[in-house]
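Marked as duplicate of an earlier ticket. Keeping the data here for the record.
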Amino acid sequence: MTIERDEPWHHKVDMCLTLAASAKRTLTYDALATEAAIPAPHRIHKLTTFLETLICEDVAAGRPIRAALVISKVRGRPAPGFFDCCRAQQLEIDDEGSFHQRQLDALFTPSQS
């Protein structure tokens, strides 16, 4: 699954995720949609569709999954669609909480180049 990155907010989402990872913090879906200036209507749906694209890109590139930085305010972790998309990418998820934490740990640990 890929979508064209022709919307200005696509770049803003990338930038927000990069900043969040470097600051070792998560963002809610609503906060990211607001920060990236995703236009209504259906701004959260637009965001989650783009995050699914990022999941596919990250898995294909062997990178930590940036979409793990985006969490539900209520759940404190990504929405079920995040885990469904990861499973569709053939990632083994033994426990959703542990899987999410491993992704965050990978994002928050500087890579050794």
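See parent ticket for discussion. The CA atoms of residues 30 and 86 lie 21 Å apart.
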